[in-house]
Amino acid sequence: MQLHFTRLSFTLVLLTGLAGCGGVEEDSRFATLGQAVDVANEDRDPPKGLNGTSPACFWAHGTQQALRNLGGAALDQGAGFLPDIPLSQVSESCRHALRSAVECALTREQSVIDPVTGERYTGWWGLAPSWSNNVLNTEGRRYVTACMVQRLNYYGRPVPILLEGPAPSIERNASFDAEYSIEESTVFGDLFSSTTPLLGILPAFNVFVCWESLLPQSCSLLGLPLFEQRLCDNLPLCGVVPLGPCGLWCVRNGPYWKCRPNLLASPWTETVRVKLETDMCQ
User: Fold this and answer.
1) Residue 89: pLDDT above 50?
2) Exposed/middle/buried for 199, CB within 10 Å: 0-12, 13-18, 19+?
3) What is the total count of domains within the chain?
């Protein structure tokens, strides 16, 4: 079922206060985003991290085709180099979307080099470390997709986040609860296995987002507006499908959720929750 953002009251997913319209003239703001993230990440460790990926770059068909291609091969194609992805497919100002895939998948001990720009992309969350030398498997495809979507932020300003899920590298740690008290949303999807033709204004894939039970009460009256502002800014290529409260669509899987992408599918355990810092409300 294809849902269109102009008819949904909460069509923009993930993180904190985004909105706007992602034009080409704004893409240049992301050219140095990688360096900014490197500096800001110095005082935090996974599963803490930062968002800041441009939805316009992420949902662009060129980026989605590049990600599909990357998923079908090892990231390291020899001597530590990624496959060659031309600037005509993913512009220099949007390469941070490729970097996000590497940061979600690999560990901090792993890295690859973009052969086009020469930039080194170092892992962070370690959700699919075997992708370095092997094709991305089903579990990895789902975790990396959810991680990348949870890092979208229209304004491109890196915002501290905490990712939680069943994967060992992001499993829940109660010691972070006081610092990251705002449970925003849970995401699940698989961009890498999508067969949707990359034509016209069809989204490359659908990703499903539900909000956590206490979101409407978070930040007093600001919880749902923060969630509503999060993602796509009416980009026609955005494939986010808002589901409403997680409890209506998903079932508990310990402290996490397992969710069905459709009514006939078995529940997926590969979900990723994002939590925001308590002082985001201040």
Assistant:
1) yes
2) exposed
3) 1
